[in-house]
Design a protein that fits this description.
By secondary structure, the protein is an all-alpha fold. It contains 13 helices and no strands. α7 runs antiparallel to α8. It starts with a helix and ends with a helix.
């Protein structure tokens, strides 16, 4: 048992650990569910108090929060994490990070490192649509934990469905050259190449899958903030070539950039359904046996 664990690669270890989470939940949490529920209620009250104090400090104007707050936060998050990965890639430091590298050595062309900013006008239009519909949740009242989980599940599902089909559409031979081909100049991507797209490509393939679920679920600003943080970190991890964040291994995204016609989805169920991960699965099997 110990020898088998030592011979496993980092991705397999992550998968094994993640697989233990539901078992631990069943064994530890459920017998003490009433205590957990009471504890969560107290935590919710504290979070609500902290949330109101934060809004008292930064203001509760919904336009400023949705448009400038969310965009400013995701911009800083994307570039700070992305530049950290870039520094590690170009300087080969810190050494311990190289142990988690899952792709071949990348030659970084800094001329490619630019992005198109289409999120700001997209956010403004989306905000006014919600405001016109009168469906924006009260900014000062946090959603319940149950609603938060349900909305998060729907957001993950819509991202997978919309992301898979829009991504695959932009690989169609009639439009690929004019849209998505620019992104695939990175045959071995780095974190900052995640948003290396033409404006239309960025809007439909990157932004729409991640954000279309927000108005559909009438998501609270707090939920939108956490979701966009999670989605930004996920796409950075997928393109980074390093398996260091608590996300699935970036091998799927690396393989997509290598073969172009495999692994279109974020999570993989639609790739399995449509048979667009057969080569990837075969390569994983062969790599484990070699």
């Amino acid at each position: 048992m110990k020898r088998a664990w030592l011979t496993m690669n980092s991705s397999d270890k992550w998968g094994a650990l993640h697989g233990l989470v539901p078992l631990l939940f069943l064994c530890v949490v459920i017998p003490y569910w009433s205590h957990v529920e009471n504890g969560w209620g107290n935590l919710g009250l504290r979070m609500q108090s902290l949330w109101e104090r934060m809004l008292d400090t930064i203001g509760d104007d919904q336009f400023n929060l949705y448009v400038y707050g969310l965009n400013g936060w995701t911009f800083v998050l994307y570039w700070s994490i992305g530049l950290a990965f870039l520094l590690a890639e170009t300087c080969a430091r810190p050494k311990w990070l190289l142990r988690y590298k899952v792709q071949p050595k990348v030659i970084v062309d800094q001329k490619r490192l630019y992005s198109f900013f289409v999120m700001l006008p997209f956010s403004i239009v989306s905000h006014y649509i919600l405001e016109y519909q009168g469906t924006l949740p009260p900014i000062r009242e946090l959603p319940t934990f149950q609603r938060f989980l349900v909305v998060f599940f729907i957001l993950i599902s819509t991202q997978e469905v919309v992301g898979y089909y829009t991504h695959r559409l932009f690989h169609h031979r009639l439009i690929y050259k004019w849209t998505h081909k620019l992104h695939h100049q990175w045959t071995a991507p780095i974190a900052l190449s995640a948003y290396y797209n033409r404006p239309l490509d960025h809007l439909i393939v990157n932004l729409m899958p991640a954000t279309i679920g927000l108005p559909l679920t009438n998501a609270h600003f707090f939920t939108s903030w956490l979701w966009l943080t999670w989605a930004t970190l996920r796409t950075l991890s997928d393109h980074s070539g390093y398996h260091v964040l608590s996300f699935p291994s970036p091998r799927r995204r690396d393989f997509h950039h290598l073969k172009f016609t495999e692994c279109y989805g974020v999570w993989g169920p639609l790739d399995y359904l449509h048979g667009t991960e057969t080569l990837f699965r075969a390569s994983k099997s062969s790599s484990k046996t070699n």
